[in-house]
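Treating backbone geometry as a discrete language has practical consequences that deserve illustration. The sequence in question and its structure tokens are set out directly beneath this paragraph.
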Amino acid sequence: MGCYKDNSNPITCCHDCKERFPACHDVCATYLREREKWIEIKNKANIARVKESVYDRYHYGRVQDSRKEGRAKGKVY
């Protein structure tokens, strides 16, 4: 699932699992529950990131517009 902030795997139920076998993630209920929780957390973070970037782009655009207006009036920044 890529890199994480703290360089740790968020799904830890498989570590030292005695019942683990090839392709067990397809049927392991514990793994599937933890994966659903992790997907939920990622989705919340992605939504927050999108909202923040929309706000940042809006704010940046407003600042740029005001600077253009100031330059048109002869102000130097």
